[in-house]
Input
Amino acid sequence: MARAAKEKVLTITWRDENYGPVSGAVAFRTALEPFPSETESRKLARIYKKNGFELNFNRQAWIAEYKPADTPIRLVEALKEAGYTVINKGAQPKILTEAKPAAEPAVADDEAPAPKM
Output
C-alpha cells in the first residue's frame, strides 16, 4: 500500500531589509511544515539561489538585491512547480499583492479570514 504524500506548506514571511548597507532588495524568511530534512533544505536553497536570492547570515534572511521586479513571483512559481503550497505573509512586495487573483482577498497577518456564507 502506497503512502500518500504529505502536503508541504511553505510560509514565506517577506521582510523589508532595506537599511544599512542593503538597498534595492526583496527579502524573506521561511517556515516549512513538515520540518524539512537536510536533503529538502538543500533543495530549497538551490531554488532560492536559482531565483536570485542569497542567504544573508547576519540578517538570517534570503535577500535579492537589485534584481528584476518579478523576482518574487518567479520564486513563488518555482516553489509551486516543485510541489510546495506557498503562503505569503509579512511585508509582501507590491508585485505579489498586485498579482493575487480578485477571488483571493488579501488577509492581514493578524486577522482571520471572513467566514464564508
User: Anything to note?
Assistant: Helices lie at 38-50, 71-81, 94-99.
